[in-house]
Design brief:
Helices cover 44% and strands 3% of the residues. The protein is mostly helical.
């Protein structure tokens, strides 16, 4: 089954829908409740009518490309107005006040060990 250009894995449909960017477990359950589909059904066992019902409900949400474009536009706006958060995004640092002396590895990257700052004397 394909929705929004994504092939859903053959899992319970509530978990399969989370493969789509912008749909987490709570939203997937909300979508299935609105489409009146059993959460435990596998994605390959859905009928065409059920698939279309899911597609119709998902059309109301911003997902995949639209959502990614909107997020990047928001970050670009912050950079353009030179806000503090925009600068943090630009420098690849946490933007929400987390500490950076320790932790923040995800954003800051691999540790770079510094030397003492003194030049090493070459032995003769």
């Amino acid at each position: 089954m394909r929705i929004a250009g994504i092939t859903l894995p053959n899992k319970r449909i509530e978990y399969a829908l989370t493969a789509i960017y912008g749909i987490g477990l709570p939203r997937a359950q909300e979508i299935l409740a609105e489409a009146k589909i059993d959460f435990g059904k596998k994605s390959d066992d859905l009928t065409d009518d059920e698939e279309n019902a899911i597609r119709k409900v998902i059309e109301d949400y911003k997902i995949e490309g639209d959502l990614k474009r909107e997020r990047s536009a928001n970050i670009k706006r912050l950079r353009d107005i030179k806000s503090y958060r925009g600068l943090r995004h630009q420098r690849g640092l946490p933007a929400r006040g987390q500490r950076t002396k320790t932790n923040a590895r995800t954003l800051r990257g691999k540790k770079k060990t510094m030397g003492s700052g003194k030049r090493k004397v070459e032995k003769k």
